Amino acid sequence: MIKKVIGLLTFKNYINGKWVDSVSKKTLKDINPANQDIVCVVPASVKEDIDEAVKAAHEAFPKWKATPAPVRANILHRAAQLLEEKKDEVAKLMCREMGKVLQECLGDVQEGIDIGYYMAGEGRRLFGHTTPSELSNKTAFTMRVPIGVCALITPWNFPIAIPAWKTTAALVCGNTVVLKPSSDTPLCAAHFVELLHKACVPAGVVNMVTGTGETVGAELVQNKEVRAVSFTGSKTTGEWIAKSSGVKKIGLEMGGKNPIILMDDADLDLALEGVLWGAFGTTGQRCTAASRVIIHQKIFSRFEKMLVLAAKKLRLGSGLSSSTDVGPLINKQALEKSQHYVNIGLKDGARLLCGGKAGPKSGFFFQPTVFSNVSPKMRIAQEEIFGPIISLIKVKNLKEAIKVANSIEYGLSSSIYTNNISSAFKAINEIESGIVYVNASTIGAEVHLPFGGVKGTGNGVREAGIEGINEFSETKTVYIDYSGKLQRAQIDD
Ligand code: UN1
Predict the structure, then answer these.
(1) Is 210 in the pocket of ligand 1 (CB under 6 A)?
(2) 362 shares a domain with 245
(3) Using the 8-state DSSP alphabet, how is residue 236 labeled?
(4) What's the CA-to-centroid distance between 287 and ligand 1, angstroms?
(5) Known active-site residue 173
(6) For the segment 26-74, what is each residue's pLDDT rounded down to a tens digit?
(7) Contact at 8 Å (CB) between 370 and 308?
(8) Which CATH number goes with the domain that contains 15?
(9) Does residue 483 form part of some domain?
(10) Ligand 1: does its nearest atom lie under 6 Å from the Cβ of 285?
(11) Contact, 91 vs 192, CB < 8 A?
């Protein structure tokens, strides 16, 4: 339960249906990135807490697995309703906890509500498939079965939506979970878990342990009773999980360097809005953020001017203020990272058109930054910055644009602005990314469609939509032979 103690919000770990102290008795501070106030204090958990949570999840698994999926789904439906009722309250808290502007926080909570209802609907589907057998009087079908205890390790940039994507899909499939939210946004996760508790999720089915990735995350990933790990976060951590998790089913979503291609026949006013939204929405802190604009040479200088003029007008400030366009970065390290990449860009010969500096000192603000004269191999065009920094790259034609778009290690989202149907389809076919937008920005995935990327972005797993079910279930293949005699596949007729 979330409580106020001497003016500070605080809560405990949630294990086996109860809010309990960490064995460590130590705490971590959760800081408001806009003014550096302490938002809440949370347990700095250790191995023993993880062991307890995994044990609870392991023990709750058989009963939850045996609960009919539509009954499991009813609980998710109820939780989504409760989240809907608390939408404003949770969004305001999110705004304090992670800084993005209120409208986006409301969108984040809405995404959590949407996936709750969507996955509740899946409780009445969870489709397998039926297919004829090659033998007479024999039938074959597949069914979805849960995996077991799932570790869900979630980031801070979508503090409700991403825990909700993972939790609802895992639960409807019949798994039990241990959620380890980012240490930057544990309060939103605690709210989400509290709503699941209120929706009567049975004890042990959902557990939440807060703490650092190095201790809590690492313990979870290596725990023998954990059968699946679903992780969204940095490439370094994802690669470590891939190496350290042993034989577990793992889902990794590790970022992007998402391009917007701008063709000479595009509607430039529309594209401008898309670039601003993709690059500076959520202060550039989305895996799907647009960080490269690949522009046809004929419109390059015109668009460059339009973008700089508009970017300079964006107002930095607290996400709670209605006059703010761009909130702060999540923490000091993020601020230093953006500054570091600006220095790298300048050193590598890119031209800084605007921004490039930290904003008001009260919080972790960074000015919306536009670099021009960027060549595709520069580090600012290759590496994920996760800040409000966009690189403009000039190209001669679509072929070169697609080549540049693909010349990175990531492949999450991408976009093309064009009014030429053939250019649009060429881009759809040839861009190496899990998501492609036409005449829309790189951000804004909807919950009933699969989300994920190719190449260095992930390991082929998709979240949300029908494919979110695949991440959290196994396929069981069933043969029923009612011939009453031995029938040998591949041998008998
Ligand atoms: C992320 O940045 O990890 O498509 C998730 C979008 C959001 C989800 C982003 N619906 O930008």
Answers:
(1) no
(2) no
(3) H
(4) 6
(5) no
(6) 999 999 999 989 999 999 999 999 999 999 999 999 999 999 999 999 9
(7) yes
(8) 3.40.605.10
(9) no
(10) no
(11) no
